[in-house]
Specification:
Helix content: 40-55%
Radius of gyration: 22 Å
Number of strands: 10
Strand order of the largest sheet: 2-1-3-4
Distance between the termini: 41 Å
Number of helices: 14
Shape: elongated
Length: 344
């Protein structure tokens, strides 16, 4: 199956020939390519809103490609400017972002935004024995650290549900994530990419929850990043009216809730409704899971998984601390006995 990059490269090489055969003039304006992960489309779209006269092409480095790094580099060399996020080896044949960077000239490296304070319970389960292959659950690669802990320590589903409580969140430090998340976002962007998002983070925060998950920002966040990138490359901004045209591309993917107890501390709305990915919205409205249904579906996956597939440094640390793991199990049982579980 062709990846998005394969299709984009095919288009980039075929379209000029088709235009020539049909006598069409080539597109006018600056040609810009945006290479990166799931955030790259939203950034490219934001750039198009800010510079409507430019031709903006996103190259999403997500699924494994058929083309190699050499062909990708040759294609990108035809652009006036390339914006690129880091991407790991194993996606594009023959290299990673470093290999691509070495083959390009007019390129600006761009940060990949990550922020965990709204969804501190969200983790990835990566199998270290098989090249960090992710385990997919009811929300694909997204998993609850508390759910995995509950399964591994042998709690029932009812007891696992009772872990989602103020006293547990306080015990595992979920209320203390904001400062570290903000510092990491700002420091990484500034140190590695030269962008200062301090004021931007403040503005995003004023709008409430600005992340759908720890790696999926809302569209106005990506539009801000698009602006900063264009400004850094000294590309003129032609349009300031963005709000009327923004689209929620990443809303089609999985959405992790902000748990009510965490939301209350942050002054935002929260809940326990988990959204499954729905990338073909014309086919239906999608599916949502309550906490009990999400936990039941997660347990079903973990029962069929190998031990190395449900390992995670944070969860392993909880389990290796007898006092902490015993306390969490006690809280689950106490909460259940008191009826102090999420009302759904």
């Amino acid at each position: 199956m062709l990846s998005q990059i394969d299709k984009q490269i095919l288009k980039a090489h075929l379209l000029p020939r088709v235009n020539k055969l049909l006598g069409r003039a080539p597109p006018a304006g600056r040609r810009i390519a945006v290479v990166g992960n799931c955030q790259s489309y939203g950034i490219a779209y934001g750039m198009k809103l800010l510079t409507p006269s430019a031709q903006i092409d996103p190259y999403s480095v997500i699924g494994k490609t058929m083309v190699n790094i050499e062909l990708l580099a040759r294609t990108l060399q035809g652009y006036d400017h390339v914006f690129m996020q880091n991407f790991p080896p194993g996606i594009v044949k023959g290299g990673d972002w470093r290999d691509l960077l070495a083959r390009l000239t007019q390129v600006t490296r761009m940060p990949s935004l990550s922020f965990a304070a709204f969804q501190p319970d969200l983790v990835y389960l990566l199998d270290a024995t098989r090249g960090n292959q992710p385990l997919n659950g009811p929300l694909r690669a997204y998993h609850s650290a508390l759910a995995v802990f509950a399964f591994r320590i042998g709690l029932t589903l009812a007891e696992a549900n009772a872990l989602f409580n103020d006293n547990v969140f306080a015990t595992v430090g979920y209320y203390d994530i904001w400062s570290a998340s903000a510092r990491e976002l700002i420091d990484d962007a500034k140190s590695y990419f030269g962008f200062d998002f301090s004021n931007d983070l403040m503005n995003w925060s004023r709008r409430g929850v600005f992340m759908y998950s720890i790696v999926h920002p809302k569209p106005y966040v990506l539009a801000t990043i698009a602006r900063r990138l264009l400004e850094s490359a000294k590309i003129s901004i032609e349009n300031e009216n963005l709000e009327d045209f923004l689209i929620d591309d990443l809303a089609r993917s999985e959405i992790w809730p902000v748990y009510p107890e965490i939301a209350a501390r942050l002054g935002v709305k929260g809940g326990y409704l988990f959204k499954r990915g729905n990338f073909h919205i014309s086919h239906g409205v999608g599916e949502f899971l309550t906490l009990p249904k999400f936990l039941a579906a997660s347990y079903a996956v973990y029962k069929g998984a190998r031990p190395e597939q449900i390992a995670h440094p944070r969860i392993d640390a909880w389990l290796e601390d007898p006092a902490l793991s015993s306390r969490l199990a006690e809280l689950a049982k106490e909460n259940l006995a008191k009826g102090a579980t999420p009302v759904l």
